[in-house]
């Protein structure tokens, strides 16, 4: 419910304890290392880039080996694997694996080599298959491709680049080489892309024949062999079978490494953690015998951390106040309010001079979410699904857990508003009772049915919006008082409250409001006079004081008038809350349409089958679409309307020095 205060925590210790202290700080994960405030020319920094890159390289090497394992020996995971989080391993198992790091690296290297061999094997198979395929047009040839003839005859084996008939070949040869006395052409195969032929001529006329064929676009086969094409193709097929068998053996060898998957994951995270330590080690300042590390620690942990360090090591600790403008931001909230922290972070963390909006925002967020979804059955499904997921997967990512918890509370809110508005899968109970049982059963709304009285819901949404905006403006006033800006509090907060309250009191008994609202208001004359007085006092005050920083009277009045014009912005903000009405009605209307579509065939077995199918598909889609709509539009009401009144954001999140693992977490005692 607050922003945790930070302290600059500096440790000066013996260099011999450097490794142990860094390991302990990394295991505790409560200190953000920041050496920017330390400037001592007598101390130096070590260049640890080479060591850090070496450990990063080892971690990446094992990651690639694990990718190979996943490709050929997939790890069995459930459809909810993304919710399971990182596996938790005992410290003893972790230490045992770390001692075997060299052997694990060798196995990773072997896996990568096997992957390389497999890739080469597949490339050879493709190459051999292409060679076998290139022999297809020549299979009827009963002599080797490299055959060149006898003592008295010359033979040319090759192809033309287009489809030619035997007559066309003879005709063109006669034109190109009219002096050829004896020749014979045999067409082996022909298709639109090529014509494969064998040409015979007298050996003394070989040169003339070769020149004539070349002029016709004749080319020799790319693959020459001393064996007949049919025999050569069989040998290539046998080679492919051998290569495939070899590839299967390599794949089996890779699959045998599956038993080392867990140890590889642990080793990869170990090298990753080592690289992170060396990154920090490159930032700390050192002398010949000592070293200095400094950073931010939450104030609540300072005393315990100082005591722990002083008990275990010979060192000196210095604790200092932190400038709020430099302080990293860490939020501390209970289980209910922390669920909106990811939403706040997506907009921007608060600065140390602001307040954590999570506590107030969480209440409105849950209310708005429920109003937009507004069907009790949908709320039950969402709440149960999120509750089971949170219970079943306690080690899921922290952000994911907070988001699911937010939807859990949103589901509970939806149940409440669904009961208040009488929505249970729309009007499913009424439709089922009428169509399949011939009875009229209606579940009455505890408050009212929005489809029957949408204007009442609109007025309620506007009321909630006004409260939301007033609370946001009140937070702005609190921040002014906190920073002792009393004049700003009066001019920018109090005067606006006076002006807006006066306008609202004038609007409620008016004819304009009466034409929209089902509720009529009538105030005594004294109250009406008070409303006008408040509006006038607020308007005059804003006109005179909004431009108070400017000494020019005319410009000051102009700035005040411009600020007073911003009342239209308040009106626009209030109207934005009509989206609560729109999405709430959309949920109910679509649900009712789904029920009507499902009951088109009436009663009976066919009607029941159709109803069940349409009911499941239709309501699933309606719930999914409106869940997304409720999430997006609730965020918008917070970011634009609520935060726009007081919140700037831009704080830097607290980033503690801790092991950022990819696969596992180590179970060890890390609490102070």
Defining traits:
single chain; 672 residues; alpha+beta; five-stranded antiparallel sheet; three-stranded antiparallel sheet; 23 helices; 60% helix
N- to C-terminal separation?
22 Å
The helix fraction, in percent, is 55-70%
Tell me how many strands there are: 12
Poorly predicted parts: none
Biggest pleated-sheet summary? 5 strands, antiparallel
SS-derived structural category: alpha+beta
Mean pLDDT: 93
Strand-residue proportion = 5-15%
Tertiary shape: extended
Cα Rg: 40 Å
Tally of individual helices? 23
Explain this structure to me?
This protein has 672 residues and is of the alpha+beta class. Helix content is 60%, strand content 10%. Strands 2, 3, 8, 9 and 10 form a 5-stranded antiparallel beta sheet that branches. It has a 3-stranded antiparallel beta sheet with strand order 5-7-6. A hairpin with a 2-residue loop joins strand 6 and strand 7. The longest helix has 39 residues, at 604-642. The mean pLDDT is 93.
């Amino acid at each position: 419910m607050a922003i945790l205060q930070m302290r600059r925590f500096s440790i000066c210790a013996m260099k011999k304890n450097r490794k142990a202290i860094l390991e302990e700080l990394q295991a505790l994960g409560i200190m953000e290392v920041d050496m920017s405030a330390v400037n001592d020319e007598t101390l130096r920094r070590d260049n640890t880039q080479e060591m850090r890159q070496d450990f990063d390289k080892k971690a990446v090497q094992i990651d690639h080996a694990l990718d190979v394992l996943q490709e050929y020996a997939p790890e069995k995971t459930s459809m909810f694997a993304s919710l399971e989080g990182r596996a938790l391993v005992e410290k003893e198992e972790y230490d045992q694996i770390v001692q075997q790091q060299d052997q694990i690296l060798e196995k990773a290297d072997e896996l990568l080599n096997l992957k390389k061999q497999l890739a080469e094997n597949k490339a050879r198979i493709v190459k051999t298959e292409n060679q076998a395929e290139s022999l297809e047009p020549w299979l009827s040839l009963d002599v080797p491709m490299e055959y060149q003839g006898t003592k008295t005859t010359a033979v040319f084996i090759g192809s033309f680049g287009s489809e030619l008939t035997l007559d066309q070949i003879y005709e063109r040869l006669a034109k190109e080489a009219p002096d050829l006395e004896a020749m014979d052409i045999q067409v082996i195969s022909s298709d639109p892309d090529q014509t494969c032929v064998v040409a015979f001529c007298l050996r003394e006329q070989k040169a003339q024949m070769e020149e004539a064929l070349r002029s016709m676009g004749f080319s020799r086969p790319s693959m020459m062999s001393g064996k007949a094409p049919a025999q050569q193709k069989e040998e290539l097929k046998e080679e492919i079978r051998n290569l495939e068998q070899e590839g299967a053996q390599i794949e089996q060898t890779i699959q045998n490494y599956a038993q080392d998957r867990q140890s590889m994951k642990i080793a990869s995270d170990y090298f990753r953690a080592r690289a992170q330590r060396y990154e920090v080690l490159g930032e700390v300042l050192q002398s010949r015998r000592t070293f200095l590390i400094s950073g931010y620690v939450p104030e609540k942990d300072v005393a315990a951390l100082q005591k722990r360090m002083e008990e275990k090591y010979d060192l000196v600790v210095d604790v200092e106040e932190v400038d709020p403008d430099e302080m990293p931001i860490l939020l501390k909230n209970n289980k209910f309010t922390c669920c909106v922290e990811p939403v706040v972070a997506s907009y921007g963390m608060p600065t140390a001079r602001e307040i954590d909006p999570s506590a107030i925002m969480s209440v409105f967020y849950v209310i708005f979410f429920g109003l937009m979804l507004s069907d009790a059955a949908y709320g039950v499904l969402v709440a149960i699904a999120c509750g089971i997921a949170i219970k079943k997967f306690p080690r899921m990512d922290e952000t994911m857990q907070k988001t699911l918890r937010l939807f859990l509370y949103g589901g509970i809110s939806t149940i409440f508003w669904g009961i208040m508005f009488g929505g249970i899968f729309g009007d499913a109970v009424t439709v089922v009772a009428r169509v399949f049982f011939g009875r009229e059963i209606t579940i009455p709304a505890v408050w009212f049915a929005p489809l029957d009285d949408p204007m009442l819901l609109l007025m309620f949404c506007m009321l909630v919006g006004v409260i939301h905006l007033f609370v946001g403006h009140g937070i702005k006033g609190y921040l002014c008082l906190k920073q002792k800006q009393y004049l700003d509090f009066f001019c920018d907060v109090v005067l606006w409250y006076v002006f807006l309250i006066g306008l609202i009191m004038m609007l409620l008994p008016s004819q304009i409001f009466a034409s929209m609202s089902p509720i009529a208001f009538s105030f005594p004359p004294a109250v009406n006079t008070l409303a006008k007085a408040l509006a006038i006092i607020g308007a005059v005050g804003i006109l005179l004081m909004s431009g108070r920083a400017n000494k020019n009277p005319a410009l000051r009045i102009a700035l005040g008038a411009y600020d007073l014009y911003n009342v239209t912005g308040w009106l626009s903000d209030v109207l934005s809350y009509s989206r609560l009405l729109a999405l709430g009605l959309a949920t109910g209307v679509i649900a009712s349409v789904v029920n009507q579509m499902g009951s088109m065939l009436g009663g009976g077995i066919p009607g029941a089958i159709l109803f069940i199918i349409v009911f499941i598909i239709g309501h699933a889609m309606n719930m999914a679409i409106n869940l997304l709509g409720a999430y997006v539009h609730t965020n918008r009401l917070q970011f634009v309307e609520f935060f726009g009144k007081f919140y700037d954001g831009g704080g830097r999140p607290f980033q503690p020095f801790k092991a950022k693992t990819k696969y596992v977490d180590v179970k060890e005692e890390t609490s102070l």
